[in-house]
Amino acid sequence: MVVCVCNAIREQEVREAARSGAQSACQAYRALGRQAKCGQCVPFARQIIAQERDAA
User: Fold this and answer.
1) 9: which strand partners?
2) Per-residue pLDDT, 36
3) pLDDT at 56 (0 to 100)
4) Which residues pair with 4 in a beta bridge?
5) From the CB of residue 48, how many other CB atoms can be counted at a distance below 10 Å?
6) CA dist 14 to 35, 56, Å?
7) If DSSP codes are grouped into helix, strand and coil, which group holds residue 4?
8) Per residue in 1-56, pLDDT tens?
């Protein structure tokens, strides 16, 4: 599933960034060499990161 249309970031990429230590959407995007643009994706990215943190 696509998380961020502006940056073409997929859910799996955000999950991998979270597993690698990203604690926020901004950190995950930076780990992927991108940054949030319009911001509509940030709540969904936060949710994914929280799921990964809870699963760890």
Assistant:
1) 4
2) 87
3) 78
4) 9
5) 21
6) 12, 15
7) strand
8) 999 999 999 999 999 999 999 999 999 999 999 988 999 999 999 999 999 999 97
> Among 1, 43, 11, which Cα is nearest to 26's?
43
**CA dist., res. 12 & res. 45, Å (int):** 11
CA–CA separation, 1 and 10 (whole Å) = 6
35's tokens? 């940054």
Token pair for 17: 């960034």
Max CA separation in the chain (angstroms): 30
CA distance 56 to 8: 26
Q: Measured between alpha carbons, how far is 15 from 46 in angstroms, rounded to an integer?
A: 10
* Cα 4 to Cα 38: distance, rounded to the nearest angstrom: 9
